[in-house]
Amino acid sequence: MAVEAKEECFAQKPFKLDKLSIASPNMLVRTSSQNDDPKFECRDGWRLFFTKEFECRNATETHIYNVFTSTWSTLDELDNSLPNRHVFKTRYGKRIAYEYEDGEDLLPDIPRPEHPLECYGSTVYGDYLYTFGDLSISEEFGGDRRFFCEIFRIHLKGMGHEYISRPLLHNSDRRFDYSIVVVAERVFFIGGQGFDQLVDLVEIPVFNLKTLSWSTVNTKPDRCSKSVQNYPEARVSPSCLVIDTPNGQEIVIAGGNGKFDNCTDIWALNLLTYEWRFINVIEEINLMIMRVAQSHPHCMYIYGTTGHFEIYRMWLQIPRLETMCLEAISHYRLYKLPETDLIRFRVPPRFFEELKK
Q1: Residues 19 and 311: beta-carbon distance below 8 Å
Q2: Rounded mean pLDDT of 94-111?
Q3: How much is the mean pLDDT over the chain?
Q4: Structural domain range at position 228
Q5: How many CA atoms lie within 13 A of 119 on its CB side?
């Protein structure tokens, strides 16, 4: 049986950007500044989920892109479904979704006046769902910097909700439009802007969910950077994820909006040395929105828009040999062949279950 041939050679190199798709359902394209971006996540290593809330219709749509077969589908076309979800709302209508297992009690309804004003991130730690609103920084306490944030937490076992802290209203710097990164019990506040300028990435506030206390991380420049600068450019709403490396965990940031243009550079912050590491610049495109998700140990997917929808992929380290073999099967579309032919091509039988997903 003839196999459809591809002209380009199959190769996987770290930090090389590969375009996967520019065709997508219309619902994924950002049509106005008032529309929230789809929630972006990767499951099972190959499937990218794009879930969008339609406030006016009180509806949710989920579209799936299968990286292995380069095909689109909807959630209704799959045998399995997303986990159960409970949705909270901020006072300004933004939705915060918490996924839970079957059999859990219904979560408490929150009176609308008690909802968080705004939410730039949320996480589940222990029995609580935490949300993070405007951040304030004050030097009114004997010269020491103090951090305050509208942190709201909801007890997921039905025991109610509470504020942990509120932002200062006077004599403080305000920060909003930041991104949060959660590593174990620590929450990092990345980027953002005050009322008159963007906030740099030299000093990063950190909130500890275990002790409910604040600290500061003073980052170090990239000493080997080939970039124009050795710190990431100040930006609002960067996309972030956490990866494991031989040198410890790192926070990867990508995209965001800079002072004059959209940011298309990618950096990593080592959580042992707190040193920045320049990774790459996406020179081929200038995405208006960039969102990232991780699959496998070190594969980062990027989606964004330039007026139309685009999906890219980048390996942050050399993938395992087994992963490279599966990627080669995908690249040459060998998954279309019957198992007898796959065995003849010496494809390991233990790959077959993966090919059926």
Answers
A1: yes
A2: 62
A3: 77
A4: 169-318
A5: 21
49 part of a folded domain: no
The 10 Å Cβ neighbour count of residue 309 is 22
Rounded to whole angstroms, the Cα distance separating 341 from 1 reads 8
pLDDT at 313 over 50: yes
Domain-located, residue 331: yes
d(CA 312, CA 4): 23
Instruction: Assess whether 195 and 176 both reside in one domain.
Output: yes
Banded model confidence at residue 328, pLDDT cuts 50, 70, 90:
confident
pTM over 0.90: no
Structural domain contains residue 51:
no
Q: Which of 183, 182, 186, 178 is nearest to 207 (CA)?
A: 186
Based on the fold, state whether residues 266 and 137 are members of the same structural domain: no
User: Is 270 domain-assigned?
Assistant: yes
Q: In terms of domains, do 187 and 312 share one?
A: yes
Number of domains in the chain: 3
CB distance 338 to 49 below 8 Å: no
Averaged pLDDT, 129-134: 87
Tell which residue, 214, 147, 179, has the closest CA to residue 289.
179
